[in-house]
Design goal:
This protein is mainly alpha-helical. It has 2 domains: about 240 residues; about 70 residues, no CATH class. The chain has a 3-stranded antiparallel sheet with strand order 1-3-2. The two termini are about 20 Å apart.
Length: about 325
Amino acid sequence: MTWLLWRQGRSENLLVAAMLGAVAAFMLLTGANMHSAFGSSGLSQCTSDAAKLPTICSLQVNIFVQRFDGLNQLGPWLSLVPGLIGVLLATPLVLELDQGTYRLAWTQSITPRRWLTIRLALLLLAVAVCGLTVIALGTYWRQPLDSFSGRVGPSAFDLEGIVPIAYILFAAAAVLAIGAVSRRTGLAVAGGFGAYLLVRLVLRSARDKLITPLHTLSRPPSGPQGIRHSWIISQSYTMPGSRGNAYNVLRSCITSDGSLDSRCMSHHNIFSSWTYEPPSRFWPLQSIEAGIFLVLSAILIAVAVWWIRHRIA
């Protein structure tokens, strides 16, 4: 039966393999370029607290970040890959329901329960393998950039840790649930991927609310101590104990070269206000977000299983 299932889903499996191969080739090639530039420029010695870096080291860091900023901006697009993988992995089972070929398997001494159990077991195995592959590639690719920006920010968060596995599983579960109820492959694929995008966008916009972010004040132009590698949610200027507008006063502290005069800002009691998630919250945030997707996936899979067992079998 395993061989039969492979043949039935070989087109989708080959598409998944091709997609992972293309993503792997891109990440390995561009990642090797970033790692090479990181090592040859001696930036490994520039990963201490930014406030302690000498000027030349700070310049090298800025040059490196600007050089590879285009790759860093690809993070949101690469986060679509888990959704596409999940949709493709679930499509063969929906195709069977759509085309009615499951009836042939059920007449070959294979019970609906066994057929469904094997189907789901193979799907979960494929989700785990693909998820771990995405995580390994994303972690390697992001490593030089993470040395400066950290892992808790959105660009790195979606490709590392454990959430890619949960993303793939949710996309697959959404396709299964819609496909089991409708028995329409096109509707299941479009609806499942749409649900994936919607939930991802909602949770991504609410990620800073999963754990209450920290707030702190610092004397500009330097930032607060210990904020390096943090996810900066917002930064503004304020004058504690004053009703005046800090930005109006701030204009008088701009020097001829466009920089801020720290003595002027200190005289007017102007502080920088920072809202951020520290790097220590990477794994707690990962656990919460992955847990939400896993719970939603379990509900969707339960709906699909119940519908197949009671409405189709």
